[in-house]
Design brief:
about 150 residues; Endonuclease I-creI; 5-stranded antiparallel β-sheet; about 50% helix
């Protein structure tokens, strides 16, 4: 039976957290990678569990050329509200990625939908990002937004 502890184990061991750019917005996503048929089966079970919790996810397939590599698969959760729900679900069970997950939830709560700065071009962009980083650090150190 799949539960949040099971999903957290996969995320702790094989998961990643990223921001991607889409139409000028920075969109968070989490992914869990596995390879081979058994890995795909586990990711499908996790995908079904997340769907039952109202979290949209998908599985991508990647072929790695050369050597004795198996097919690789990646379960991805996109959209801020789904990523936040995923992180809140796995949070009590995380060991390795707990601090990073807490930081990402804080960042999401503080800034919500974040517009992309023009690749740090110009002094104004650097100052804007520095101000946001400082604000996030102050909030984290105060404990008010600790999740």
């Amino acid at each position: 039976m799949i539960d949040w502890g099971y999903v957290a184990g996969f995320f702790d061991g094989e998961g990643t957290f990223h921001y991607v750019s889409s139409h000028g917005n920075l969109i968070p996503y989490v992914s869990i990678a596995q390879s081979g048929g058994i890995g795909l089966s586990a990711l499908n079970d996790i995908k079904d569990f997340l769907a039952a919790k109202g979290i949209d996810s998908g599985i991508d397939r990647k072929e790695i050329k050369g050597g004795n590599y198996q097919l690789a698969y990646s379960l991805r959760v996109r959209k801020r509200e789904h990523v936040d729900a995923f992180l809140r679900g796995v949070m009590p069970y995380l060991r390795i990625k707990k601090t990073k997950a807490q930081d990402n939830l804080r960042f999401s709560r503080l800034y919500g939908r974040l517009k992309k700065c023009k690749a740090y071009h110009g002094e104004a962009s650097r100052k804007a990002w520095a101000t946001k980083r400082e604000r996030a650090k102050r909030a984290a150190s105060s404990g008010h937004l600790f999740i």
